[in-house]
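Thread: Newbie trying to understand structure tokens

Hi all, I'm a second-year student working on a class project, and my supervisor (Dr. K.) asked me to get a predicted structure for one chain before our next meeting. I've only ever worked with sequences, so writing a 3D structure as a token string is new to me. If someone could post the tokens and maybe explain what I'm looking at, I'd be very grateful. Here's the chain:
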Amino acid sequence: EELRMSKTNNFDAQSTFCVLCGRTDDCPEKYGEKRTYVNYNLTLHYYCLLMSSGIWQRGEEDEGVDGFLITDIRKEVNRAAKLKCNICKKKGASIGCVAPKCKRSYHFPCGLQRECIFQFMEDFRSYCWEHRPVQKFTDEELGASQCTICLDSVEHLPVYTVLKSPCCKNAWFHRECLQYQALSAGIFFFRCTVCNNKDKFQKEMLRMGIHIPERDASWELEENAYQDLLHCYQHCDVIRCLCKKGRDYNEPDSKWEIKRCQYCGSRGTHLACSCLRSWEQNWVCMECRSIFAKSGKYSKQKKRSLAASEKTNGTTCLLEEPPPKSPRQSSGSPRNFLLQSSKMMCQNLSPCSPLELPASNRVTMPLSPVMSNRSWSQRHKHLREQRREVCNILKELKVQVKTKTTRLNINAENIWSSALKGFRQRIFSPTNTIEVKFSNCQNRFKTNNSAASKHHFFQLLMLHLQNSSLFEGSSGKNLSFDFQAVKENLYFEAGKMIAVSLVHGGPCPGFFSKTLFNCLVYGPENVKPALEDVADVDVAQTIKTIKYANSLSSLQATLQDCCEFLDAAGCLRPVTALCDKNMLVHDILIYHVIKRIALPLESFMQGLKTLGVLEKMQMHPDVFSSILCHKPERLSAETLCDLFTIHSSPNVNKGADFWMGYLQDVESGESVVTLEDILLFVTGSCYIPSAGFDPEPTITFSCIRYPIGNRLLNCLKLPITKTYQQFKNKMEFTIRNTLRVERE
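---
Reply by user tm_fold:
Sure, no problem. This is what the structure looks like when written as tokens:
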């Protein structure tokens, strides 16, 4: 007869004794669920039953108590009644140590109290306090650090209450913290909090007596657990709201759409109320502006670039002939390098090109003569050679990528959340070919070219990471310490995204500081940080005051003022001479730039190991620094000439001359399109990927009316014309209007 389990009001579970341990405690976290079976006059703790040495699951899952037959349970109770517990000295000790020749028996709660280990796997073995398994420690590991779950201090000692990760040397845990984490995460989500390793980590924790329940995570089982996250702030907070329908009115894709503050997200404005011409423009609320003004984190130069970017938004009519050429300013010969405004490119959220802006509105400026032309040219040439080497290395790694595809549905308005969701889905694999679909705010998918969507996705993702709270600094960025990001394992995901982007055809990140890069390839213990690596204004000012103190009394006064900070950094020590300041400055820099971000760095490195990228970085540090520590090379006529291979055909010489002359005109500003537009027209990308194009771009000349860009083959078919002016007109008309049609 099928067992009926009931917990009725007539049977108080708190007042009943477990038939195996004799206790009335009802603590599921420690002893498992306390179950009462009225029909059989039976009450027991689930863990007491699992760990009992003389009973096995002889029935099916729906028989008895999860496969333990009632007759077997009663036999086990009778057997245990004859055994005395070696801890509390009472009868009923149903659990025995499995070590050879060990005759100790104990109740499950007594075993926990005496620090025995119970393995919730295979044969459900139990070990007494003398024979329990232990983790191996080396003398170098002794010390103290933070528990990566509760972030309280944990001593590195071979004791029952402390566990270390088998996969990360810097990950230490309190046993109690780890057990609660396992009960909450379940078998599908329980993994190393630093490197995200699952198999090796779970195997070691099971060996050390951590119970991992075979169920989904608690947050996945709770109904409507994420309902609050779906709420978006929709209110106009500017002093004078111009909308006649009220401050809460929001009409997408119009001037009455509400834009939230890019930093806090808790303030909003209608586009029209803050003179924003498009949703892509960033907006900062008054509260955030005042905070930044007081902290001095944003320079006047950045404010000017923001203001300049607001002037670069314009629209043009669809499918019109090119207007008379409006030359942009250039410094010298057609081959001089021009720096296009990066802000304009950042705000363009469509995978199309900068062509949505009139040529007259595209901001350019000559390169500042920081160094002589000769030395700059040599450095530029060296960077090119290094990037070619990186390209070949990444092509080797790309061999791992299979033809099987994984689709990422990306919301361009919330690039980080949608990318994170895609990378964390169970079916995602870095070795699968990535296909990207962009969605608008109505959740309808745009029909973009697959290659163009993927290239644009990686471009937006790298830009977001560069400006995210995971990094700090102005141009060369270091990792920051974001407690919430550590808790949510976002540093691992960021490293993984950068690795996947590099191999799958994303752009050069180009924002790593030299210090961060050296930590990744040489190890943090071999890196000496500089004052420029400190992004916090207050900390930097403190270090400067100590560094430039000109007397012992002024130095001691400074240390007195910041003694709390020095104590927290572990740098507080007696100073007896002025020369002691040098060692003190060194220690503060090591703490703030290196030790403080030990957990984020370890997690970030684990993410970069995806597809073998970090290993290659450590093998070839010089060449990888060219794409991680230096901004991507701006396109030039020479770069595109080298990029494209021209196939031989009749009239190829005349056509090649027209092609190279046209590139020079575009570079010098004597065209309505840009070099990025040309590359986008042919390949679907406005940048050259770190791993190069596959297949390599080619050019053929044919008797056709207008040029054709085949993005599947990266092939550009060009018309054969009698004059250069005809060639130029056809190129500009086709490229300009094709890209504009795609955008619409």
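A couple of things are worth pointing out once you decode it. Residues 139-220 form a domain with the Herpes Virus-1 fold (CATH 3.30.40). The longest helix spans residues 373-398. Feel free to ask follow-ups in this thread.
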